[in-house]
Design a protein that fits this description.
Helix content is about 35%, strand content about 15%. By secondary structure, it is an alpha+beta fold. Helix 2 crosses helix 3.
Length: about 170
């Protein structure tokens, strides 16, 4: 085959650029949808497993502004650039997740009450990947299992925050 066999018409090239020239694979990344459901299965240092289903919704422009307003209020009047990196990141995650998570397990109803930063980070990581995929900043992938994969305790140790293990 020579170079001439690779020459395509302008319409073929246009369809390829627009993504219309490719045949659907039948596998669509659910992160391409506005609402994305994922599960967290995370074990804390004491062996309790925090497990649950979440639904994240892509934020609108107005909601992004509301996230910013919430971050500012959480700073309590302190200039944003004077906050340490941990506090700034933590406030960003809490504010963002408060608006974007439209469904969450009862133990995650008040995200500010969670005792484990790594648990909040695991939830935020799923949300960030959803939003990056939806917006095209990250290539779509075939569906796979979600969650941190860090669960080391037995599933029967799944607990609500504040309840003793096994109850």
């Amino acid at each position: 085959m020579g170079i001439m066999s690779e020459v395509k018409s302008p319409e073929e090239i246009k369809r390829e650029i627009e993504g219309k020239g490719e045949q659907p694979t039948g596998i669509e990344d659910p992160r391409l949808l506005e609402d994305f459901t994922f599960e967290i299965d995370w074990a804390d240092p004491r062996g309790k497993v925090w497990k649950g289903k979440f639904v994240n919704r892509i934020l609108s422009g107005q909601q992004i502004s509301q996230v910013g307003a919430m971050k500012a209020r959480m700073a309590g009047g302190v200039p944003w650039d004077s906050l340490d990196e941990y506090t700034s990141d933590h406030n960003e995650k809490l504010s963002h997740l408060t608006f974007s998570l439209i469904e969450r397990p009862s133990w995650a109803k008040n995200l500010g009450e969670l005792k484990y930063k790594d648990l909040l980070d695991a939830i935020y990581q799923e949300v960030s990947l959803h939003e990056a995929t939806f917006s095209g900043r990250v290539a779509a992938q075939a569906p796979s299992s979600t969650g941190s994969g860090d669960a080391i305790g037995p599933v029967e140790n799944v607990v609500e925050q504040g309840e003793p293990a096994g109850g």
